[in-house]
Amino acid sequence: MMLASAAPSQNDLAFEQYSAKLLNDMWREFPEQGITAGYYKYADKMTVPDANRRAKNLAFYNAKLTALAKFDSKTLSAPNQVDLRLIQNRFKSYLWHQSVFKHWQWQPSQYNVGNTLGVLLNTEYAPLPTRLRQVSARLASVPAYYNAAQVNISTPTREHTQLAILQNNGTLSVLNAKLLDIVNSSSLTDTEKTQFKLRYDLARNAITGYVDFLTKLSTTLAKDPDKARSFRIGRDLYAQKFSFDIQSGLSVDELHQRAIAEKTALHEAMATRALALWPSVMGTLEIPANKLAMIRAVLDELSKRHTTRDKFVETINAHIPALEAFVREKDLVDQDATRPLVVRETPLYMRGSGAGASISAPGPYDPTANTYYNVTPLDSMTEAEAESYLREYNHWMLQILNIHEAIPGHYTQLMHANKSKSRIKTIFGNGSMIEGWAVFSEKVMLDAGYDNQSPEIWLMWMKWNLRSVVNTILDIEIHTKNMSRDAALTMMQNEAFQQETEATNKWRRATLSQVQLTSYYNGYAEITNLRDEIKQRGISNSNDKFSVKAFNNQFLSYGSAPVKLIRELMLDDVKK
Fold first, then answer.
1. Global pTM exceeds 0.90
2. CA–centroid distance for 24 within its chain
């Protein structure tokens, strides 16, 4: 259990005071990051991503790193040592992205005003007139924002160009006639309403102009592919990005080899499960001699049980209360009914990345705002594509998806992160810890008897877990070993048993992101190892036995810090 800490030293107090000031400086300098964290004081300011802004960014990060270097980590408490390392890693990462990776040149999709406008309009952090004035002020800078974006773009990838077109067209759905109706019926003055409408029109024109610019660019790149940059970032950049983003105890090559070995182990475990299920699922049909073919046959037959395309979002929404009840019944981790979870259709400006579901959580400054479970409906799919997708997210897999994204996965973890004593550990969160917890939480539920320990849910979970493992192999081999599209689809369909639509979407996702797909398996493996280590050392409940809930609550209490740093803190607490 968590023990009371000693009174902070003068060095700790000085560091904590500086950290608080640093955050305030960040929100003033980078208002969009503040909005993500739930800090709206500077929400009326928009960052225009031009050369002058990049120079200011570099100066800011370098100045803060210089100031942080004055703190001797050995004189700080263990939690503050972790905070110091998190800030330093993030600022060094920012510098690297801007000066080395230079994604601002070749990823047109990073330029989009839709998300921040959507947050300000949909989050009731202030009275409506206040929020509309902030939106109006931001709209005034939209033309300059997109002018800077066009100047910045140099040798983009075709994939990011196409995504930018899709998502910025989606942003136009935020600036719609309904918004003008809201403005006109609000208590803004007539002058403010007129000003809003003018800025609204100019902003829409700027977005449309950016889309037109990219559409012409996309046509040029299609005619002359040599003018486009490859989406593959190569071995050196990949290793550097992996170091900043994942903060693993493993190298890229080590994680790759572990994933390959885990794939083989999962095939063996799935074969055992599938063979046991064969009589009840496949009847008297002859069992294939090929192990993977036998697994695939059972999975394909089970996958015929699924919801309909029209009820896909509705089915997900209806399942959430059952997950809450199961976690409560088994006493697996603390929940908080005051932190609302809302299932919604994915906003248009967020679609097209290859991920069909995601979580948009509030930041630690506005923790009781809605957490949105974004689910993309299947409207745009053909009948064949929708059927393939529904077979992938069949009766059992859809439940695992809901565990992963919602309870006790992302929603639960991010809710706990917002309650962390250290905002640094939440704001500078680690993606591998976040994704790793979501995967780990699935196993927690199955170990606790979810779905009555049915062999079907276990086989489907193994398939799901195999997806995390294969994500790692794919991402590394696509970006560092030039793995082809055909080879990737073959691995996903033949060795990970994925349906065609899922595999196609994953390929698209791998072309639009780098390193992120390794976060699932890396985080899951690290958390599982830590749980086993803590189990041996002993976190006790009142019966002096290992407590699943005690471990989960304490692990989540450290915000979203990297697992290797949470390990240091937890072991330190155990020693105490």
1. yes
2. 25
